[in-house]
Every structure is written in structure tokens, then in C-alpha cells.
Amino acid sequence: MHCPFCRYSDSRVIDSRTSDDGLSIRRRRQCPECGRRFSTTETASLSVIKRNGSVVPFSREKIVAGVRKACQGRPVTDGDLAILAQKVEESLRSTGASQLEANDIGLAILPELRELDEVAFLRFASVYQAFENLEDFEAAIAQLRVEDAARPEKG
């Protein structure tokens, strides 16, 4: 790590701490040449391979924006959407991959959105999975009912 003051090509790590969200590491460093101290923040980059083949940085904001459309008129707050996006990002990072297909992100959104609001889940799934007719909706609803019946009661 280059010193931002004297541009010396090395520095010594004095202290390392994980950020509150656990997604980055803050390192306190000292330059052996000029003796000045500075901080760095390190994060693992996560990239998305879009359907057209281009690669863009991962963005929680894009998840929130996409899910917000499905949640219009539903009792879902901005805080709920932020938590959903954080959970999705955590599940994607846990795979260890640095590049993800856009499709994988949609697949990671679906279970989190289902827990948040089933109507919003159906709306999102209908676009994401390209529902073409009422039978597609009926099949998705039937699957939700089967899964709900098999799920142990909360409480």
C-alpha cells in the first residue's frame, strides 16, 4: 500500500477492524518512511454479469429499486427493502464468487421477498420468471400453498 503523503511503496498495518456490517475491513496503517498514519478500507468486490455479457459492479440500490416496483401498494417499508437487499448481498457473498450472473441475483431475491410479502413475491416472480398466462400464476400460487402447508408453524 503506497503512503498517500510521501508515496513510499510500503506501509505497516497497526490495527485492523471489521466494519459494523461485516462487509469491509478498516486498517490503520503507518508509513515507515515519513511516519505518518492513515486508514484504508478494504472490501471484496462483487461484479454482475448482465444478460448482454457486460460486467457491472453489484449494487444494493438496484435490488431495492427492482423490488420496490413489486412492492407498490403493499405494506413494505424502505427499511424492509434495505434489509432484504442486505440479506441478498450476504447470501451472494457467502457463495465466494466474485462474479455473479444477473439471473443468480434474481434467484437470491425470490426467497427473501417471499418472506417479506407473498403478493410482492408473485409480482416479482411474474416478471422475473416471465409468466405468460393465468396458468403460470395459478401454478405459482399452488406451489406457495404446498410450501406453506409443509412449513412448520411459526411461534
From TrEMBL:
Lineage top rank: taxon: Bacteria
Zinc finger boundaries on the chain: unnamed: 3-34
Cofactors, names only: Zn(2+)
Role, per record: Negatively regulates transcription of bacterial ribonucleotide reductase nrd genes and operons by binding to NrdR-boxes.
BP-aspect Gene Ontology terms: negative regulation of DNA-templated transcription
Entry keyword set: ATP-binding, DNA-binding, Metal-binding, Nucleotide-binding, Repressor, Transcription, Transcription regulation, Zinc, Zinc-finger
Single GO molecular function: ATP binding
NCBIfam families per UniProt: transcriptional regulator NrdR (TIGR00244)
Signal peptide annotation: none
PANTHER family: TRANSCRIPTIONAL REPRESSOR NRDR
Family: Belongs to the NrdR family.
Protein's recorded name: Transcriptional repressor NrdR
Residues in ATP-cone domain copies: 46-136
InterPro entries, alphabetized: ATP-cone_dom (IPR005144), NrdR-like_N (IPR055173), RNR_NrdR-like (IPR003796)
Lineage of origin: Bacteria, Bacillati, Actinomycetota, Actinomycetes, Micrococcales
Organism: Microcella daejeonensis
Cofactor note: Binds 1 zinc ion.
